[in-house]
């Protein structure tokens, strides 16, 4: 009798309950186990040689997206997302630091408000940085807009235009950022173009705990008495990044090619120094059955700082073998080899040689095996 009462109550509740907006959960889970050469801790041995020990490491990256959607009475749609990257404590390490936005969309396009990706960054991250170039082409030094507003147009002639602007933290001295991207296809060829810029500041790179935000100052030292950080204003500083890429397939072969530029003009002791670098990428993937083999090459020129042209360039060779385990899960072997110029330690973007120790002047190789599954 008790079970019948419970069942009747459940049915009545289901019939009388109000309609709720659609909510879904999606994401991915990736496991990476890898070895990196020239990955020492920066110390020297008794002979004065750098510690360049090969290290074995692992990374577990679980991304959880919570999405909501509701159809409005005027025919438009309200949507939202909260996203977090779990188990990677140095990147997007608080709920909503990865994404936290609300959008309104319809036949006129869509408007998105809040913490969101930069589309120029996403173009570089995928597809051009895939298959071995995530630490070079895929890391231009920023990830997105912490307090952004963006507009995406409906498709016209196979292309979509997006424009975005970041309000900073609301302070009148806060830096601002903006971008414009255009993506579409001409026949079998997809084209991707984007331009991102920051005024009076610099990006917070790598999507740290501050999320997709900007900074109007940077640390230049530590006070010996108080132990507090000594900060320098980045007022007047500038940063920009543009990319033009094309991709397409011929039979079972997919080709990707891109050229990009990163320019940084950041105050140093009251003087702005302009650093400008070009990057060139060409890669291809051949698929057969459950397998795919990818090989690519990237060259990033030495910096031109307005005063000298140092030998601080780098080259990257990327190889990847993918094997499908199911329609949602794949396994892969990736080999990435970085070759750096003799003055690499002077490079503003030395973090891009992440496979080696910080500021290393030596080449480095990363060999990685892993799995990726989407849900």
Automatic annotation (TrEMBL):
Keywords: Cell outer membrane, Ion transport, Membrane, Porin, Signal, Transmembrane, Transmembrane beta strand, Transport. InterPro entries: Gram-neg_bact_OMP (IPR050298), Gram_neg_porin_domain (IPR033900), Porin_dom_sf (IPR023614), Porin_Neis (IPR002299). Residues 1-21 form the signal peptide. It is a multi-pass membrane protein. Residues 8-338 form the Porin domain. The keyword Signal applies. The keyword Transmembrane applies. It is found in: Cell outer membrane. It holds the Pfam family Porin_4. Transmembrane segments: none annotated. PANTHER family: OUTER MEMBRANE PORIN F-RELATED, PROTEIN YDDL-RELATED. This is Porin.
């Amino acid at each position: 009798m008790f079970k019948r009462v419970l069942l009747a109550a459940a049915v009545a509740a289901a019939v009388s309950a109000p309609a709720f907006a659609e909510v879904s959960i999606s994401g991915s889970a990736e496991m990476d186990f890898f070895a990196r050469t020239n990955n020492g801790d920066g110390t020297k041995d008794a002979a004065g040689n750098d510690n360049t020990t090969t290290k074995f490491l692992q990374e577990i990256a679980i991304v959880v997206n919570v999405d909501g959607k509701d159809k409005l009475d005027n025919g438009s749609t309200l949507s939202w997302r909260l996203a977090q990257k779990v188990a990677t404590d140095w990147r997007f390490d608080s709920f909503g630091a990865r994404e936290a936005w609300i959008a309104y969309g319809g036949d006129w396009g869509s408007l998105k408000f809040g913490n969101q990706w930069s589309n120029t960054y996403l173009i570089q991250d995928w597809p051009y940085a895939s298959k071995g170039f995530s630490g070079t082409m895929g890391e231009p030094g920023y990830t997105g807009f912490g307090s952004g507003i963006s507009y995406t147009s409906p498709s016209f002639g196979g292309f979509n235009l997006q424009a975005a602007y970041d309000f900073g933290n609301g302070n009148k001295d806060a830096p601002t950022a903006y971008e414009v991207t255009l993506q579409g296809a001409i026949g079998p060829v997809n084209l991707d173009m984007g331009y991102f810029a920051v005024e009076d500041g610099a990006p917070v790179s790598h999507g740290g705990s501050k999320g997709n935000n900007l900074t109007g100052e940077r640390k230049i030292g530590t006070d010996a008495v108080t132990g507090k950080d000594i900060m320098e204003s980045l007022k007047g500083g500038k940063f920009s990044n543009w990319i033009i890429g094309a991709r397409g397939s011929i039979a079972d072969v997919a080709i990707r090619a891109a050229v990009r530029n990163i320019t940084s003009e950041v105050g140093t002791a009251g003087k702005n120094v302009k650093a400008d670098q070009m990057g060139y990428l060409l890669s291809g993937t051949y698929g057969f059955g459950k397998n795919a083999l990818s090989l690519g090459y990237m060259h990033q020129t030495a910096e031109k700082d307005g005063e000298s042209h140092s030998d601080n360039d780098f080259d990257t060779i990327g190889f990847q073998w993918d094997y499908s385990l199911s329609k949602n899960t794949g396994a892969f072997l990736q080999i990435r080899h970085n070759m750096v110029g003799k003055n690499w330690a002077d490079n503003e973007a030395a973090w891009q040689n992440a496979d080696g120790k910080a500021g290393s002047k030596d080449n480095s190789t990363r060999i990685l095996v892993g799995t990726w599954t989407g849900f």
